[in-house]
Amino acid sequence: MVSFDVEFVVDAPIARLWAALKDANKIFPTILPEIFASIEHIEGVDGEPGAVRLIKFGPVLPPGSYVKEKLVSLDHVHKSVVAEEVEGGHLAIGFSKWVANMKVTDEGDKTKMYFTFDVEGEGPAVEQAIAQTKVGTAPVFQALAKHVVDSGLYA
């Protein structure tokens, strides 16, 4: 197993960003349609551990690209989330496991985001996917933070 970390700061207060994350299924396809064509809850109780969502990717990925992602744990007190890919996504390109652990911490009017990815896989796409994740995670959440601030929502 390989683990790697990604951390960065976004320009939105933690309370507002955390509240917006609860609406991520609606927000991400709206603000980043080139990445997320749609996100829908398909199994379990939405927002509760065990829930599964289907993410269909936009035109930046090959046609038909998708991932089914299971919510493993959600801690509102410590502001952390663990999600595991269960079908498609990285599992379709050589990984046998892809688990994302996210934690957010307060930085005043900003939020620090920490991600640890625990992955297993082999093949030519593995190193490329890890490199893309290291570069591509921050812009997605920076776009969310910008949406939160610009929209005035989640205040």
UniProtKB/TrEMBL annotation:
InterPro entries: Bet_v_I_allergen, Plant_def-hormone_signal, Polyketide_cyclase/dehydratase, START-like_dom_sf. SUPFAM superfamilies: Bet v1-like. The keyword Cytoplasm applies. It is found in: Cytoplasm; Nucleus. One of its GO terms (cellular component) is nucleus. One of its GO terms (molecular function) is protein phosphatase inhibitor activity. Keywords: Abscisic acid signaling pathway, Cytoplasm, Nucleus, Protein phosphatase inhibitor, Receptor. One of its GO terms (biological process) is abscisic acid-activated signaling pathway. Belongs to the PYR/PYL/RCAR abscisic acid intracellular receptor family. This is Bet v I/Major latex protein domain-containing protein. It comes from Riccia fluitans. The lineage of its organism: Eukaryota, Viridiplantae, Streptophyta, Embryophyta, Marchantiophyta.
